[in-house]
Amino acid sequence: MKDSTQTAITVTSIAANHGAVFFWILGLLGFNEWKFTEWHDGDYYYLAAALCWGISNFAVTYEFIVQRKEGKEKMIASTNALYSPPPCLAGAVKSSLHISHTFNPIFGFFLKKRVPSKIGSNEKQPLGSIFSAQGGSFYGFQVYSHRFVNLALLSALNFLSDWQCFSFAPIHLLAEEQFEGLQPETLVSIFLLSNFIATLLEPKVVQLFGLRGCVTLGSMFLAIGSLVKSGIPFFGPNYANLSMIRLGTVLIGLSQPMYQCTPALLSSTWFPHDERTIATAIALNSNQLGIGASFAMGALVVERASDVPQYFGFLGVLSFLLFLGVLLEFEEAPPTPPSHAAAAAAEKREKLLAIDPTNLSELLTNPHAPQTNLNDNDVGDYDSDDSDGDYEELSYTWDFLRQFFIRPGFIHALIAFATSAVVINTVSTYMNALLAARGHGRVYVGIVGAGFQLVVMASSFIIGGYTDRKRNYFTVTISLLLAGALMLAVCSQALDQNSNVVNIWWMLLVIAATVGPLQPIATELGCEVVYPHSENVVLVLQQLAANLCSAAFVPCFEDFKDLFNQRFPQYGVSFLILTGIHALATIQFMTFDGTYERYRAELKKKKSRRRRKDKNFIAVNESTVLIDSI
Questions:
Q1: pLDDT average, residue stretch 264-275
Q2: Measured between alpha carbons, how far is residue 119 from residues 148, 185, 214, 329 in Å?
Q3: 242-251, pLDDT tens digit by residue?
């Protein structure tokens, strides 16, 4: 980078930091020389401060990227060494500290790729020591207790983001009273559309900044969005500004894919093979717990319309504290790889870096992920059957996406996943309206709403665990689709207040038990049929389809609520349309013709390992006979 360009970027960073502090102080003082008609005193100043901070951080990030591309940043080849922060950060951060102590140091932490040297053990194994000489087998893998800290932080982010997304659902009547013109279903659609856009960008963010950088960026957007939505607690709470709520919802929606789409990457980087499924399931199901918390806490905490701003302020404080926790404790990768496939990939990585150290920027996607474009003969022998394909860069060329969509059965799994997401998101959004129409109060809505999400999570674990053991993905999926369509049709009749046949509350719980497990099972089914392609890419594509379909249908559910109201109860036609969508997905899934490629590969691994054990046993017996003869 030219000296003049670097100087300009540094000056821009410093000036933006100074401007951020200036506008922040004006906002705190409520300076009102400028007259604004819509926003309250100080709101524009807070927004200007946030924009200045963003400009400053963008300038520093740009400088970091350019210097890395020019090869000026010191590259560290060893996977168990700390990554040094780029030297270009030092001047900008030190200058900014004189005025704003809390701005760029945060981003300095964010850019620094931290690989812990002491987590649970003071000894680090060199990569070569974990390889044995026979047949590429591996031994001596060490896992680190800090993996549970990373998992807890990632789960907390998923938990809090969906709590924010559905925070209006159980209290929408009180929220509409406090914020005139508020439409909770519109906010959910805004959230899901923002989520869709960010999901497209998530793989590139991971490639550029790594796992820690992606998660930290997402937590930062969650914290900023939560504070924009709620205002600044104790200084300038948001009492009536609908624009700030919408802007905060957009930022929170943009943040979620940065941690919602990375559980598979986290589990492959930190967890041994036999812990990955449960680790991924815990992180993903934290979303359902977050939605349940939104119903339970909304019912318990918010009693009046005036309680809504304080409630959102509480969520803003939680988001900020969680961001600090991620900033300080979330780590990039363990000192040594945790599994067979990760170790093989790490050796490939060292070989590639020995050839050309500048290749480090191409390997930032995952420190332990297999790089399939390498020649195995150039980097050593290992058992390729154990390579999981833990993470795969998501490009958007048709040739890349075609690899997934041409696999028989992948589209079926995609549609099943999206259908389940549409039903769960729609019912969660309108839970209050559905139960209030039957005369149920706020506390009752909170109990049923929280129970709905708990049933979704519990049934996902129970049915998902059964399916993993039996490997009968098709049978379970088609059974759940049929049962879900039937329960939705019955629920449309339960909406009638004169109906004494069935109560709506337990019908909603049955829907949760039949429709909820479809998402994790459809994800596993998608991974089965596209193997050896990355399960992370499968999840990203399914999330894209689910968010786009949900964002499109959620507002329509409200539009059809009074259609043919002389013959059907309120929301009756809406439920029938939802039932029709579910039925069409069921019919389409009946044409499933995929094969369980991952299961075949696992059987092949078992046979290969059994053959190796037999060979070793024969070799030992021959050695014993030879010794006896001597």
A1: 78
A2: 11, 45, 22, 11
A3: 888 888 999 9
